[in-house]
Amino acid sequence: MESKPNNQNINPLNSILQSRRFKETIGKLNPVLFWAAIAGFLTGVIGGSFRFLISAILNSRVHWIDSLDKILGAIISIALSGIMAYLGFWIMRRFSPDTSGSGIPQIEGMLSRHFPLVWQRVLPVKFTTGILILGSGMVMGREGPTIQMGGSIGKMVATWFRANHEQTRVLVAACGGAGLATAFNAPLAGIMFVFEELKPVFEDEVHAYRAVTLSCISATVGLQLILGTGPVLKLTQFETPPLASLWIFALLGVAFGIIGYYFNFFLVKSLNFFSSLRGIYYHLTGLFVGSFIGLMSWFYTPTTGGGEEMIIWSFNNVEPSHILLLLFAVRFGMTILCYGSGAPGGIFAPMLSIATLFCLGIAKQTHIWFPTILPYPEVLTIAGMGALVAATVRAPLTAILLTLEITANYLLILPILVSCFTASMTAHGMGGRPIYTVLLERKLQK
């Protein structure tokens, strides 16, 4: 005798009613979304103020030193950068050692429940030391500090509203993405950064995605209220290159995959060297590195600074290829030195400048060889920016969106896609590992 089927199990209406999609349509609005919007806006305002102050300090510093006598200018530049860096290191080590470096591994560690996040000390210390370190001319980016400050603001807002642990994690992740969006006026890159790099696992992923999106949107609004609209890098808007040129962008990706592999290699070596210092060399690390930065800034200004101003300078000044490639090598080493010292700052912006110099250095020769295939050699620069970030961080989608948003060259999406994924695969094939994974492991071992 045949058994009757279980109607309850096969009833289509019951299946629909129990589905997650249906529950989402009838569920109440999650308060985390409102909290994320508030925290994101605060991240944009604080991060925008952070950007404004750093730019004002750097510009004032350069103009003041340029107005002085050569010898006096050198002395002031060395002393000023050395003192600012020394104070930044002292404040960081005295009040919040967990603000060293970019701060991204610390946010990742908090989301994976390995590290605490004490926003009461991280937020003011990262803001203060970031201004001192970046204002001294260190070759470091502002995105690291704004990401860690953003995560701290998320934790702060969670405390205000007495959020539970899971809601707190959502707010920290959302505002970490908002921090990247604030640093580069790039909300889409901020959203993708959370899910491609931070990789948090949430109980309610749908509401978490919405919180991240709202936070990045509101952060961009807060930023633009302070600094205005428009891309970070106001460069030429290029036309789409011919399909026949895509192999050149693939080769460019291979080159940056190799460069990215060695960038990560030497960065870890530098971190190991500085972490082994003891005694006076440890205590005066900021003074030594800062003074050297001051000397280099006086000698040739484009060798120092975060990178955005240098990128615009390199596009506006017609320099020979050998000068650009030499400057590429110098800034490569300066980035390794500055980040390896443990100073609070990021590496995204320096990598963008390194890629720009390398690409402009080879673009002219490439145009001579293939004038019809590559009519605008500067297009290589736009694709190369994302390729180096993809190779080092191993987050190609974030690199693609970041490049498109900071340059507004949306017609170059196909060459950028080719370069970024080729660079990421090349670095992976060489045995390289994502830099923030390596940095997180180092902190866990300590």
From TrEMBL:
Keywords: Chloride, Ion transport, Membrane, Transmembrane, Transmembrane helix, Transport. InterPro entries: Cl-channel_core, ClC. The chain crosses the membrane at residues 32-59, 71-92, 170-195, 247-268, 280-301, 321-340, 347-370, 382-404, 411-430. Gene3D superfamilies: Clc chloride channel. It is a multi-pass membrane protein. CDD domains: EriC. It is found in: Membrane. The keyword Cell wall biogenesis/degradation does not apply. Its main location: membrane. The keyword Lipoprotein does not apply. PANTHER family: CHLORIDE CHANNEL PROTEIN (PTHR45711). NCBIfam families: PRK05277.1. This is H(+)/Cl(-) exchange transporter ClcA. It comes from Floridaenema evergladense BLCC-F167.
